[in-house]
Write a structure and sequence with these properties.
Helix content is 20%, strand content 29%. It is of the alpha/beta class.
């Protein structure tokens, strides 16, 4: 089992250890940890499911079928929102323009059909085509159709070939928020989250949960904990596993992290679903008492931008 480091967290009110969730054993397979929720956590719980999928680059039909099966499994476990990784169907391939979909394309229609009798939401990594432009997109869909659509705002440029994203895609230019069971939430994609300003901006927008889609070697809890604890932000993080387009093995590290930085669930080196019950109603009070959030000097920093 992963043990939590509480040295900084002692300064922040609330704690993740009281939540029922999943964790992982040392081999990376998810195991259940049942701990009763503490009465100090106000409001309704939200059950987050994060899918870590071994997607084959370019195999759209196969990847879609697998994603639908995972989504169906998560719905059977009463997930309120189901998160997939960045570019889950297409990945990085030279014929991406032939494989890209419009927002209201076949995959969102398939997810909508799956959700027809559910109030749950699915957030997934779409390779989006709009006219002659292409975007790396996170699309949120529910029973009534597309709820929100976020386009990656920071395109990875320090690479050659298929991973030089500005060659193939246009960047988005706005942050996107939505609600999950009434709780305001945000979304970002891979390189976006490497800029701490992104998580801070979503905190400033009063988001309680932040969903981070990735398609890279790994994105484990160690890269999430500081963003979560310094912003009092519940974070759900997805990443691909298996071989990428270059034959490199991606380990995943998909995780769900509480607003104090505590690890609720994590998975490495295999595909599967992790779950955690979180309490976004606790975020407001935690943030108002968070020294790394309250103590910021925006008036000072703005003079140097």
């Amino acid at each position: 089992m992963h043990e939590k480091n509480v040295s900084r967290r002692a300064f922040i009110s609330a704690g993740a250890g009281s939540f029922g969730a999943l964790s992982v054993d040392v081999q990376g397979a998810p195991v259940t940890r049942n701990v009763p929720a503490s009465p100090e956590h106000a409001g309704d719980k939200v059950r987050i499911a994060v899918v870590q999928q071994n997607s084959v680059p370019g195999e759209v039909e196969k990847n879609r079928a697998k994603a639908l099966a995972f989504a169906g499994e998560a719905l059977a476990h009463d997930a309120d929102i189901i998160l997939f990784h960045e570019e889950v169907l297409v990945g990085y391939v030279d014929n991406l323009k032939d494989l890209a979909e419009e927002v209201n394309g076949p995959t969102n229609r398939a997810f909508r059909s799956l959700l027809s009798t559910s109030e749950a939401l699915i957030l997934w990594g779409l390779t989006e085509r709009k006219g002659n432009s292409y975007y790396i997109t996170a699309s949120l869909v529910g029973a009534n159709g597309v709820v929100a659509n976020y386009r990656k705002t920071h395109l990875w440029w320090k690479a050659e070939g298929l991973r030089h994203e500005p060659t193939f895609y246009k960047p988005g230019n706005e942050l996107v928020t939505f609600t999950v069971k009434g709780y305001k939430s945000g979304v970002m994609i891979c390189y976006d989250g490497d800029f701490p300003e992104m998580t801070r901006c979503y905190a400033n927008l009063d988001c309680t949960m932040l969903f981070w889609l990735n398609n890279r070697g790994e994105r484990g809890h160690g890269e999430v904990v500081k963003l979560a604890e310094t912003n009092s932000m519940i974070m759900a993080v997805s990443c691909v596993c298996g071989e990428n387009e270059l034959g490199y093995k991606c380990r995943g590290g998909s995780n769900i992290t509480d607003h104090d930085g505590g690890l609720l669930s994590e998975i490495w080196d295999t595909e599967g679903i992790i779950y955690a019950d979180v309490y976004p109603g606790a975020v407001k009070d935690a943030r108002s008492n968070n020294p790394w959030y309250v103590g910021r000097r925006s008036d000072l920093y703005s003079r140097y931008y």
